[in-house]
Design brief:
This protein has 103 residues and is mostly helical. The chain has four helices and no strands. The protein is elongated and about 60 Å long.
């Protein structure tokens, strides 16, 4: 299933971008939920939004519209893992440096 014309997206047509984002929102949200749902559910929508921003940045590299869902899933998954690692490190005292020889 395709949602919009790739040439219209590249030309910056706002209706085409709205249609693309509406099509990809559940994909990005699902990928973020799969990684963050159990531990940081409050971060899911932020990661999905960042993923869609990443889609906009990479639109010129896409060869056909059918690649967008895979790209959205990949970007959202990678962002979610990165966010999870960052938040988990913060919970465990990231930045706190101690000697390995300390008792």
């Amino acid at each position: 299933m395709t949602c919009c014309d790739l040439d219209a997206l590249r030309a910056g047509d706002p209706e085409a971008w709205d249609a693309l984002f509406a099509w990809l929102w559940p994909v990005a949200l699902g990928a973020a939920h799969a990684r963050l749902g159990a531990t940081f559910p409050e971060e899911i929508e932020d990661v999905a939004i960042e993923a869609l921003e990443g889609i906009a940045a990479k639109a010129s590299q896409v060869k056909n519209v059918e690649e967008f869902p895979k790209l959205a899933r990949s970007i959202a998954g990678n962002l979610a893992v990165s966010r999870w690692r960052s938040l988990t490190a913060e919970k465990r005292g990231a930045g706190r440096v101690e000697s390995l020889n300390a008792p």
